[in-house]
Design a protein that fits this description.
By secondary structure, this protein is mostly helical. The chain has a domain at 6-122: Orthogonal Bundle (Multidrug-efflux Transporter Regulator, Chain: A, Domain 2), CATH 1.10.1660. The chain has helices at 8-15, 19-27, 39-53, 58-69, 78-81, 113-120, 126-150, 155-168, 173-185, 189-202, 207-219, 223-236, 241-253, 257-270, 275-289, and strands spanning 6-7, 36-37, 83-87, 90-95, 98-101. Strand 3 and strand 4 form a beta hairpin. Helix 7 (126-150) runs antiparallel to helix 8 (155-168). The radius of gyration is 21 Å and the shape is globular. The N and C termini lie far apart (51 Å).
Amino acid sequence: MVQQAYTREEARRVLRISEKQLRGWEQQGLVAPAETYGFRELLALRTLIRLRENRVPPKQIKRAVEALTVKLKEGESPLTELKLYADGKRIRVEIDGKPMEAESGQLLLDFNAAELNRLLHFKPKPAETKDRERRAEAERWFQRGLEMEQTGASPQEVIEVYRKAVELDPRSAGALVNLGTIYFNLRDWKEAERYYGQAIQTDPEYSLAHFDIANLFDERGDRLKALEHYLTALRISPNYADAHYNVALLYQGLNQPMKAVHHWKAYLRLDPSSNWATVARRELAKLREAAVVPGTRG
């Protein structure tokens, strides 16, 4: 089977990350610079996204990755070979179903290479095996859905694939959000809200789910609910540029110019060179010209 390859732009669109964020990870040495991405590279980026959403500092991620790399075989990456996740302010790694602290090396780094390899391939109990197989199968259906969206499959075909992922793993927040987005694009607000709501219930700290349901409420004219979820997305991911942009527009529409200015400036710090940055500067200029906030600078 030929592995699906994504261009740099396609990978960013699928994962919903900015070019600035991707370049930042490359400069920090967390991922290698690339113009095309396969499944393993997407897994590494998704791990980084989850850690970022939990507000883990990049330097801490780098320390944990470096600490784990010394125990893996040459050429293998902790971001793809191990399950890394945030536990409060710490990064942990799961091996044989047991959490271990990644950065300090407690427990994990006491193992030699042979022992670590044994743990990574330790045969789990039948129930654990079945559960892991279902999650792995759900991930394959999810990736298939992403591929089908990229190749222009019909919405109904993609819906069926994502539903299969959710059937196998009801906690597949990514599949739930993508289902919501498909229904959003079909203007089926009820179904879109249902799937976005399930994603948030599954993972309350999933900033993308809050951002997308905020878009839905905004589209339906419920600005207060939209604002609530945009702000939640920013609480989880303070550097979420698109959320700053939409919050600025909402505050401007709600006649709260000082708050709008704060979020326009935050957006421009994060994305100073895109076409949308031109719009942001124009909106700041409107506020200045209206003499609502004298001295504002874009």
